[in-house]
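Message: I would love a firmer grasp of how sequence relates to backbone shape in proteins. Thank you; the sequence and its tokens follow:
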Amino acid sequence: MVWITAVLFTPVTSTAMITAGTTLGAVSAYVFSKRLSEEWTHKIQNSHLYKLLYKEGNFFTLFALRIMPGFPHSVINYSSGILKIKFINFIPATMFGTAVKTYIYSVMIYNTTTPGTLTRSIGVSTIFPLLLLSLLILAGVVVKRYLDNK
């Protein structure tokens, strides 16, 4: 949908539409997976991996995953429901992460498809800032965890 809305609308309008749709879809996937996975979740609640993912299910981790280029949002949506990540972290991270990522992609697509701008290339310079920001946020989460465990 980003490819369609970014061609038909301005980047801001495209971003608003995609963010709203993505957030509604993410909440639906979250609720769906949370309700259908209760029995399965009960079996894995004592595992180290489950505890780690539940503990690190904060805004910054979710936000970093949302803006990471190529990271599947469905994994975030369904796993957040299974892990019962707090809505207070899930919803804002979904909205802000989707808005940042979609805006960058929308500007790139809009500029590429607008007459007179076809010579602008799509490349690493477009995706690199998202990847760098995502990695910096994840590094901050790791440092915070390290300092909390000291």
User: Anything to note?
Assistant: DSSP finds eight helices and no strands in the chain. Helices lie at 2-8, 11-36, 38-44, 48-55, 59-67, 73-82, 87-113, 124-149.
